[in-house]
Specification:
Length: about 130
């Protein structure tokens, strides 16, 4: 999926991951594929099995100097977050699934649902479909 993320042109200015082994490992693999410096990868304990509200809190707490974020975490929170950004997108974001959106916002204050343009929705089994 890292190569496919690179092919989609996804280049975040910040990657934040759950501290869980699988999430951190996946984040590191993807970071390498998209030439993101591993030393800038941030781990956030609040993302472990995070709910939608916790994920929103993670995003809201980021510095506005970052113009794009990539999150690595867990379901059902990530599915809920994807559907918050793009209502009705999926009933289950698959393992290693990617949702990329462009938000019409000036800062990370996601206190209300932002207008989002879906740029990419991809997951491992999509290529086999």
């Amino acid at each position: 999926m890292g190569k496919r993320i690179a092919d989609h042109g996804i280049r975040p200015s910040l990657i934040v991951t759950s501290p869980a082994v699988r999430a951190r490992t996946t984040a590191k693999i993807v970071a390498q594929e998209i030439s993101y410096p591993l030393e800038f990868l941030q781990s956030d304990d609040s993302m472990y099995l995070a709910s939608l509200d916790s994920l929103l809190g993670t995003v809201i707490s980021q510095d506005n100097g970052f113009n794009s974020l990539m999150l690595f975490g867990h379901n059902p929170g990530l599915t809920d977050f994807a559907n918050f950004l793009v209502p009705g997108l999926t009933n289950n974001l698959p393992t290693a699934g990617v949702v990329s959106v462009q938000l019409d916002i000036d800062d990370w204050s996601l206190f209300s649902q932002p207008r989002a343009e879906l740029l990419a929705y991809d997951y491992p089994k999509l290529a086999a479909s």
